[in-house]
Amino acid sequence: MENNTSMPRIILVDDHALFRGGLRNLLEQVGQCQVVAEAASGEEFLTLQPSVECDVVFMDISMPGIDGVETTRRALEIDPSLRIVTLSMFGDENYYTRMVEAGASGFLLKDSSIDEVLEAIQCVCEGGTYFSEAILSTLSSQLPRTESAEEEESLSARELEILLAVCQGLSNQEIADQLFISKRTVDKHRANILEKTGCKNTASLVVYAIKHSLVDLM
């Protein structure tokens, strides 16, 4: 859901009230976004989703009942334009690829700084994907690697260039500005990359690129 005339509207979904309250206070203190609702479970969020307009959802992974993976999948079926940022702790690594497949747009550790939280909000609101450096490092070390020669041959030099920019979290407009080409051209290249790789979304492109050693993000 686009929100170009006001601050990003945020919903916090986490089963720990103290964490929700702390994050809400931090976000309200900086004054760059508006927390419009909270939910203590996936079920509660899915119930309130149709009645509360928002731009970004901070989603806990591990919750009683419906976990963050299934909640994300169901929420995006209702509103595919919703941007969902995963909140995780060390030990949640096994959930990352499942959250990517569910359609999450960003990944943050719960001990991230407020500056990183704000960076993630801005990035996903502009159409990019945000991975904290710690999570990228974990993915890079844990994902099984495959030979990349075939993948490199299937993507043009320009597409590989754009793929790297996508993995760095740049929006299509930022990529266009960086490469001195039109946003429409970037849109077309990005669509071709998704088709060639069989990826469904930007987050899955990041995982694909790491898995096939197409980019060096660290």
- Coarse shape: globular
Across the major sheet, the strand order is 2-1-3-4-5-6
Structural class: alpha/beta
What is the average per-residue confidence, as pLDDT, rounded to a whole number?
Answer: 87
Please give the share of residues in helix: 40-55%
Distance between the termini: 32 Å
Order of helices and strands: EHEHEHEHEHEHHHHHH
Q: Strand count, sense and closure of the main sheet?
A: 6 strands, parallel
Strand content: 5-15%
Counting DSSP E segments of at least 2 residues, the number of strands comes to: 6
Radius of gyration (Å): 17 Å
Task: Describe the model.
It is built from 11 helices and 6 strands. With 218 residues, the chain is α/β, with parallel strands linked by helices. It has a 6-stranded parallel sheet with strand order 2-1-3-4-5-6. α5 links the parallel β5 (106-109) and β6. The model is unreliable at 1-5 (pLDDT under 50).
